[in-house]
Amino acid sequence: MKIGSKVYWRKSSGEVILITPEIESEYARETTKEDDMGFYPQLKGFDPAQVDVLQLTYRQYYEDFQRAKSYIVNPDTGKMEFIYIDDNGGETPTPQVPLTDQLSELKARQASTEAALLTFMDATTHA
User: Fold this and answer.
1) Same domain assignment for residues 123 and 62
2) How many domains, in total, are found in the chain?
């Protein structure tokens, strides 16, 4: 069984408190928020009503975590946002959706654009 990480974060700010490790084992089992709040020292002392959890799939955002300088959970959307290392030394970096999600969106747009171009080319050559 493969179990992805859980991201525990403050509802008020999006600050990530803890990311649990991924597990790949035939003996692995899913845990509840209550289980984790009692087990992980980083979560002890937090009011469970003030903490939320985002369950990731196995290896979800693996590359993003490797490349990111920091990350938060957007409190409005409940989704991960990453601040990537800026080699250009430009402006203050702002959180953005994961690069893996951006890439998926770009691939979908590209496929849609290519389909539209093929339809247009077919219509103009047969007109």
Assistant:
1) no
2) 2
Indicate the DSSP class of residue 121.
Answer: H
Residues 90 and 103 in one domain: no
In terms of pTM, does the model score above 0.85?
no
List all residues 6 or more positions away from 108 whose beta carbon is below 8 Å from its beta carbon: none
Distance of CA 3 to the CA centre of its chain: 15
pLDDT tens digits along 31-79? 999 999 999 999 999 999 999 999 999 999 998 998 899 999 999 999 9
> Looking at the structure, do residues 85 and 105 belong to the same domain, yes or no?
no
Are residues 51 and 6 part of one domain? Answer: yes
**DSSP run (H or E) holding 51:** strand 51-55
Contact 23, 3 (CB under 8 A): yes
The closest of 39, 44, 49 to 17, measured between CA atoms, is 44
Domain that residue 46 falls in: 2-96
pLDDT above 90 covers a percentage of the chain that reads: 59
Dihedral of CA 2/38/14/72: which sign?
negative
| Rounded Cα–Cα distance for residues 121 and 24 (Å) | 49
Based on the fold, state whether residues 52 and 82 are members of the same structural domain.
Answer: yes
